[in-house]
Amino acid sequence: MDADTLFAAARSGDAAAIATALDRDPQLRDVRDQPFEWTLLHHAAQRGHLPIVNLLLERGFDVNTKEKGDHTTALNWAAAAGHVDVVRRLLDAGVDAIGLGDDHELEVIGWATCWDGCDDQAHHSIADQLIERGARHHIFSAISMNRGDEVRRIVAGDRTQLERKMSQFEDFRLPLHFAVQRNRPEMVRLLLELGADPHGKDGSGCPPAAYAMQPGADRALHEALKNSGDLDLFTALALGEEAVAAEIIRSDPQSVERGGILHLMSKRGHAGAVKWLLSHGAGPNTLWAHWDANVTPLHLAVLGDHLEVVRVLLAAGADPSIRDSKHDSDAIGWAQFFERPAIVSMLTAS
Asked: How many Å apart are CA 55 and CA 165, to the nearest integer?
């Protein structure tokens, strides 16, 4: 059996085929996949194939072997995928439960808690297992799991954790950015209470509000800005203060096009604010730099899966054929990539 067939067997769960191949050539146990040198154990663990994990460990595979893409063991991938039984088996085999040194700087507990889809009981159970084996929450895993007690403990021990940056792959987000992105309003309030900077910037210069995918995700943030007197146009609209927003535009007509306000309101699904901005002169086809690409409001409405916002933008003349500057994709391409079938139908019919 060649290496490609062997890796396909690991991904599909064909333990018998792998056992037969290893019986013929035991050295195949340590074969590496390209381009990131994944092992058979990485593939099997990510897919949750416990029989193959057992087989490889019984054949003497080193459970702490790391691949060279993200510099992780198989445990990271099993934890991220929520495979409780595989995680338990790897821990019992002596894998490092902490996992320092991964490229995302999240450790295994971060892989179990900080990605999209990590909100279920399986991932919570995995986090508990890791803690039982010596791991501890860092500020991002604590935020993601709504563990206010852990956030307080971490900040009490080191206040600089409020300014701890995520890795370059997460654009150096701060904890407050992350809390908004994960839609953790309780954590947003707690971080502000503990002294997090509501104006903090990520690696692209974006404030925490740029990460809101839901209208209420950062309400506590905007309430804090309002209380401190920092009520700009974006904050006023986020809080529903349209009279204040109108006064801001009267004083500064260019503010309606500044800072990607229409884009961010489209991303967060705030259809009322989108309508208001369009009626006050915001351009539906304006390109704005969101992280590392110039995009239209329509691109970001698609990203957030906000059908009503897409409808509002199209009615105002949004052009779905405009392409972003990084992926060279129009809004339909984004809708197809992010699997938004209702939006694909609406855009193709427009």
From this structure: 39
